[in-house]
């Protein structure tokens, strides 16, 4: 313990508590640094493990390469015309304005990537398994899977192929059993029918294992589109940069080059398709116009031959006579049709079901007249039967059935006859209209001949125009070329795009540092017991009087004459020195030792404190006042049949209670005596007060070992006799919450001059206690029996870490 700590730990003088000059931030930083130093071996192991895992990952991870390509696009806004483009554009009929932004979207299109996937069968991946990792292979596969039929949507599937040399193979998957086949056999797989063909340029070994991964076309397109990037590096130029991430550089280069070729081919095809469509349209129009021109010429010839304009008057009379005959025949047929409709309406009327069909309306059709005669005869027969029978008579019913059948036949026959009459009427009307039309056309024949001549001139002009445009379209098609030109074909970068070696190693280092740091941090924040000096400062305002290191001794008494050079003894000497500041009055000599719970070292501190005071030549008495669970007499091997409890009830005199101890000649002992049933009541007796008055007169120091104040009230009952209180807390044992007891005792002054003594402090820089205790700098550890200094170097640090 250094001097600055003494000023803090010496409690309070004249009612004022001393504070450390160090800031909290410096303490926290120092604690972190010390924590790292004290656990350096965990950090070294974690760093080795983190870097080792990173190196293993770099060794066995499948690297991704970036394949780059660059094309230039003709953009009217940014220039970039190709040499000779101006001359060709003068011949082109279809000068579409292209720009870089549109072409970028075309290159990103799904249809373009889907064509590449189809052409290269990128939905089928070939892999080869090593001892640890499985890598994709491309170009040197000794076989190839060709799909005869493949479903559009399918669940991804993996096949394993075991080659059997030139004889054949064995193929299997999870959803399918093993299939043995020969090269070129058609296989019925889960996804459809396929053929496994032999690539003879590559050798094949028997028993070699390959993998085939099959995914849907849609998934393959989506995967490659996700890894495909297009950008325009500068808005002032018409250059397009393309990049693709692939695990196999050769495959990536093939995909990008195929995509560029497909784009260029599609661009030219679009222009040629427009030109071909135009030429085809012109060819069709030429056929039509040529036919129309020939037709007009033939019409003129035919018109001259068919229309003899020498005797137009006689031709008109003949036409008028023919029109009169047709009108007479048309009238007769229309009358006949009216009769048929009336008769049809009469037959269909349900009211006339039992009436005879009128013979006056019967048309002159033999078949229909025969049916009407049979129908009327049955109606008459039915009327005669009803005169002597009812309608329920079977004979009457039979007649009704026959009448119904004949009535249906009448309707059918009448409908057929009606349609024949209607056809005759339409034919007569057509002929009559034709004759009327000829009559009206006779005065305009000369005008029609002039129209024919004008149409002939128009058709000739249109025919010549189409021939000219067809030749221009053919020239335009021959001048079509892609609007883009390849500047840099696809080329893979020599260094993998990912994983990046430096980044992975850095992550390994960070993880190696983070894991032990996180473990130490969680250990600290989850711990409910006192581990650091700051844990005490943050939970209690009580000053720390001294710190006692960890003891390897099994004996209760450590402070002995022969052990005077031990660091632990020096720490008790520090308590003795610091007590001079606490017990500043002339008659202040009673020291009460208590704690929160059992096991914190009250008896150990009290006994050795009595011993170190006795070593200084003072007359000391040690009182075992833990009447419920006495430990001093038990550990010292002292008979405890008589003691304070027997004195309090009057069975033992004061002179008999005070007995010499084996601790030191200057140290006397008062044992607790037999455990009483009412310890608290005994402490309230008048004899207890008399005992302390006697001891004040006889001894220089009275050390009182009491029961834990956090469990029972014995300590508070004895507080009125004490001049100072030593509250014992044990590192790694006392709960942080129990420090609130010392806080209450200190702030509410329930006990006099409360000071903390930290017991069982381990040698750990991270705990905030430094390398020694009291005057123990350089004296070694509390458990060292030889008093030797700690050795330097790696070995000593490992030993130190194990002991801590």
From TrEMBL:
Its EC number is 2.7.10.2. Residues 785-804 are annotated as: Disordered. One of its GO terms (cellular component) is plasma membrane. Pfam families: AAA_31 (PF13614), GNVR (PF13807), Wzz (PF02706). The chain crosses the membrane at residues 40-60, 503-522. CDD domains: BY-kinase. Belongs to the etk/wzc family. This is non-specific protein-tyrosine kinase. Residues 589-718 form the AAA domain. It is a multi-pass membrane protein.
